[in-house]
Amino acid sequence: MQPVPPDDSSPWSFLPRYADKTERRIIGLMSGTSADGIDAALVRISGSGRETKAVVEAFITQPFPTELRHQILWICHGEGNSETVSALNVALGHRFADAAIAVRDAAGGVQIDAVSSHGQTISHTPGSHPYPATLQIGESSIIAQRLGVPVVSDFRPADMSAGGQGAPLVPYVDWCLLTHPTKARAIQNIGGIGNVTYLPPNAAPETVLGFDTGPGNMLIDAAAAWFSDGEMSFDDAGRVAASGTIDYDLLVWLLDHPFLSQKPPKSAGREEFGSNFFNKEILLPHQAHWSQEQARDVVTTLTAFTAYSIFEAYRSFLPAMPDEVIIGGGGARNPTLMRMLSEKFGSIPVVTHEDSGIDSEAKEALAFAVLANETLLGKPGNLPSVTGALKRVILGKITVP
Q1: 3-state DSSP call for residue 37?
Q2: CA geometry: angle at 259 spanning 255 and 262, to 5°?
């Protein structure tokens, strides 16, 4: 029997063509636990694994309208029903598609090969029993139809099905792009949640460590909104925190949070450090007794909580302190938080991704573009030493137009 030739009309025929290209352009889309908007990066990628080269050709951020952000957070806090989740899934699919089109236009309308969409996490409970679970929404079929290219999405379940936490996934990309031949590096992302990648010198995949360190910006954002009676959604440039003082009694109590002493692998979300924790555990016992000046100190103290929790996580769970700490995410734009981190780490340099040639704001969108590249090449993108999975697996699901 003669072999059947490949059907080039099949939507799946793009896979061998993709692998044959020396360079590919992928749009990475990311919305984090703060649910403040979509980061979109158009990335030119070549290679794979430690041979990966990735250049951001265009980057934009599209903030969510206030009402949409409130709806996302409302559902994340357990409100709504299956109908509201379903409707939000479709609405976010269109928002992600809008962002992808906008960043493609910002790059001059270049031809792209694929879109990578992390989606919007509305629940992440890797420790739940009997079924650890995670859910990211933002319908990939809408993105695929509107962009006309394959979409890789839903990255976390494959790792969880192999016994992992499904997070963090960015450490694989840190290993690809930021491993140093002679220095031990800690790559610290400070988004809604903080997470670290520890890269020994010239790291092999199995020697990489990574885990969520605890709060990032999420509690700071909640405190800033409360302090300003809703006029602020975050502490812009750390100005409020810079004007207050640390309440050390509150800080000591916060540092006793059980997540911080939990051994890796571990991942956190708004379930641990979201607005419910802020409202019920911090405000409820104290709000009636706090003056406006003390309210300012709460923002300062929660900023310190993020800095201290990062330092304590390194001291407790890394094999050794790193030679340098590289900060990415929104926290890199908070000078007060950066100053507190520098004070805690002393002689260890605390720098930003820009010092390594990477845009801090674009980092996570870039990371998911790199992860999608591995998926489309048929290669695993998780690190069991980070997530706790039993084996390496190919991440994500591919949706074709």
Answers
A1: strand
A2: 110
Q: How many CB atoms lie within 10 A of CB 175?
A: 23
Gap between the Cα atoms of 400 and 185, Å rounded: 38
Distances (CA, A) of 128 to 7, 77, 125: 44, 16, 6
110 phi and psi angles, rounded to 5 deg: -65, 155
User: Are 327 and 350 in contact, with CB atoms under 8 Å apart?
Assistant: yes
- The tokens describing 128, both together, are 């739940």
Does residue 337 carry a pLDDT above 70?
yes
- Residue 67 CB neighbours (<10 A): 8
pLDDT digits (tens, 9 = 90+) for 253-308: 999 999 999 999 898 887 899 888 999 999 988 877 788 788 899 999 999 999 99
Beta strand 114-125 with 24-31 is parallel
Report yes or no: 46 and 25 within 8 Å, Cβ to Cβ: no
What mean pLDDT, rounded, does the chain reach? 93
Is it the case that residue 1 has pLDDT exceeding 50? no
What percent of the chain lies above the pLDDT cut of 90?
A: 81
The CA dihedral of 237, 243, 246, 250, to the nearest 10 degrees, is -80
Cα separation values, 262 from 266, 272, 306, 308, 388, Å = 7, 12, 16, 16, 14
Residues 238-248: what's their mean pLDDT? Answer: 97
**Sequence-separated (6 or more) residues with CB below 8 Å from residue 67:** none
CA distance 377 to 74: 38
**Which residue matches tokens 């820009």?**
354
Neighbours of 365 (CB within 10 A): 29
Q: DSSP of 302-321, one letter per residue?
A: HHHHHHHHHHHHHHHHSSS-
Above 80 in pLDDT, residue 170?
yes
Q: What is the mean pLDDT of residues 369-373?
A: 98
CB 337 within 8 A of CB 325: no
Q: What is the mean pLDDT of residues 5-24?
A: 75
What stretches of 92-156 adopt beta strand conformation (E)? 114-125, 133-137, 151-153
| CA end-to-end span of the chain | 33
- For residue 239, count other CB atoms closer than 10 A to its CB: 14
Per-residue confidence band for 332, with pLDDT thresholds at 50, 70 and 90: very high
